[in-house]
């Protein structure tokens, strides 16, 4: 039968609570749709770092390379500096496996509340397509004259034609599959005078190859305002690494809760494993209580199944999430409920098993 090997990295904080629920639902889907998942569990985290001085072992990437996909929780904990933990685990995976697309759906689900007045599910349904390997997240730069009055730090943004064109192309191709066929570009060419005009140039060039797609572009500042005031304007929003990061927390917040937002770090050519993780982080403020929302993780699991070719199973998981939210099933506090993390995972696994 069909079989997939999944590397499981719960990471830190609530990642340890959401990942088991994601696996519970994936297991139910595998049984129902007749495929096998072989799991390799890795406890790489800030705890590992404190014990060994590394976030993952030296051969970590080689081990992950043997998997079909990576299922990750969250990385980062207050006792290790974020730039150390994230650049020791999450970012090297995204870059090392050339997962150049970060795909982040933002959707107001029936039965959940948006903080925006007079908005419903028809108004908030778009994708953020984030460039995931270059841009503002570069390792080029440094610090000089440390501790002196002349202290100097710099970090260079790096945009390559190859890197920009491939993410733009992905966004246009995605828009082709959507009813509204629209791509919005996030830019800041009034203030950032080399990289952003270049991005705009490539965007205009790419648009020429897609005459059926409507295009739009906004500077990132007013674009944030439009996310709040006019979420219905957006269909596919494409942005650089940093702008995409910002928009992909704002989008889910506008759609109700960051706790349900999924993400896929994709290498579309399938030359390397892709990685699936919720948009949120390790949430130290609520970790350890099993009150966090596991839906972002579970939905990320559905995106993983779709990437692996198990579309039917992926659709079933999404249907069950929609039904649970629409019909008043168990919900966690971020959605105004009282349920625990495991209650939600169990309810969804049962719904899958029952043929939902
Ligand atoms: P966060 O996403 O962890 O938390 C922000 C807020 O949202 C908190 O109040 C938290 O309680 C709430 N929240 C997040 N997920 C939730 C869920 N599933 N259910 C209910 N509420 C939820 O962001 P942060 O506080 O900026 O970051 C905490 C740590 O996580 C930092 O170390 C940060 O670097 C890291 N981080 C990692 C990732 C990742 O692994 N991809 C993403 C973001 C942040
Ligand atoms: C995300 C996170 C990460 C990012 C951080 C933790 C490095 O915010 O996945 O959105 O900026 O990519
Ligand atoms: Mn983020």
Automatic annotation (TrEMBL):
InterPro entries: ICDH/IPMDH, IsoCit/isopropylmalate_DH_CS, IsoPropMal-DH-like_dom, TTC_DH. One of its GO terms (molecular function) is NAD binding. The keyword Metal-binding applies. Keywords: Manganese, Metal-binding, NAD, Oxidoreductase. Gene3D superfamilies: Isopropylmalate Dehydrogenase (3.40.718.10). Its EC number is 1.1.1.83, 1.1.1.93, 4.1.1.73. Pathway: Carbohydrate acid metabolism; tartrate degradation; 2-hydroxy-3-oxosuccinate from L-tartrate: step 1/1; Carbohydrate acid metabolism; tartrate degradation; 2-hydroxy-3-oxosuccinate from meso-tartrate: step 1/1; Carbohydrate acid metabolism; tartrate degradation; D-glycerate from L-tartrate: step 1/1. Residues 5-348 form the Isopropylmalate dehydrogenase-like domain. Its cofactor is K(+); Mg(2+); Mn(2+). Transmembrane segments: none annotated. It catalyses: (2R,3S)-tartrate + NAD(+) = 2-hydroxy-3-oxosuccinate + NADH + H(+); tartrate + NAD(+) = 2-hydroxy-3-oxosuccinate + NADH + H(+); (2R,3R)-tartrate + H(+) = (R)-glycerate + CO2; (R)-malate + NAD(+) = pyruvate + CO2 + NADH. The keyword Manganese applies. NCBIfam families: PRK03437.1, TTC. Belongs to the isocitrate and isopropylmalate dehydrogenases family. Has multiple catalytic activities. Apart from catalyzing the oxidation of (+)-tartrate to oxaloglycolate, also converts meso-tartrate to D-glycerate and catalyzes the oxidative decarboxylation of D-malate to pyruvate. This is D-malate dehydrogenase [decarboxylating]. It comes from Teichococcus rhizosphaerae.
């Amino acid at each position: 039968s069909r079989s997939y090997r999944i590397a499981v990295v719960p990471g830190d904080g609530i990642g340890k609570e959401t990942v088991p629920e994601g696996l519970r639902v994936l297991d139910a889907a595998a049984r129902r749709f007749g495929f096998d998942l072989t799991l390799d569990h890795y406890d790489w985290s800030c705890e590992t770092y404190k014990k060994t001085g590394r976030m993952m072992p030296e051969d970590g990437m080689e081990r992950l390379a043997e998997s079909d996909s990576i299922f990750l929780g969250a990385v980062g904990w207050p006792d290790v500096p974020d730039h150390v933990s994230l650049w020791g685990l999450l970012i090297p995976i995204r870059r090392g496996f050339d997962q150049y697309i970060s795909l982040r759906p933002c959707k107001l689900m029936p039965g959940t509340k948006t903080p925006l007045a007079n908005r419903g599910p028809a108004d908030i349904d778009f994708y953020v397509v984030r460039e995931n390997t270059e841009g503002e997240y570069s390792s080029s730069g440094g610090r000089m004259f440390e501790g002196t009055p002349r202290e100097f730090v710099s970090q260079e943004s790096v945009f390559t034609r190859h890197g920009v064109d491939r993410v733009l192309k992905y966004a246009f191709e995605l828009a082709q599959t959507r009813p509204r066929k629209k791509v919005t570009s996030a830019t800041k060419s009034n203030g950032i005078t080399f990289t952003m005009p270049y991005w705009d140039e490539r965007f205009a060039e790419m648009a020429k190859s897609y005459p059926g797609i409507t295009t739009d572009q906004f500077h990132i500042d007013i674009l944030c305002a439009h996310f709040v005031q006019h979420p219905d304007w957006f269909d596919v929003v494409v942005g650089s690494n940093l702008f995409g990061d910002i928009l992909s927390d704002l989008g889910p917040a506008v759609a109700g809760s960051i706790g349900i937002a999924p993400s896929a770090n994709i290498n579309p050519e399938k030359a390397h494993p892709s990685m699936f993780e919720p948009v949120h982080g390790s949430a130290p403020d609520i970790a350890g209580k099993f009150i966090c929302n596991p839906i972002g993780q579970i939905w990320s699991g559905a995106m993983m199944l779709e990437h692996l070719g198990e579309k039917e199973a992926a659709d079933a998981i999404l249907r069950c999430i929609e039904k649970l939210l629409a019909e008043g099933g168990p919900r966690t506090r971020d959605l105004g409920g009282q349920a625990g993390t495991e209650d939600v995972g169990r309810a969804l696994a049962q719904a899958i098993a029952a043929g939902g």
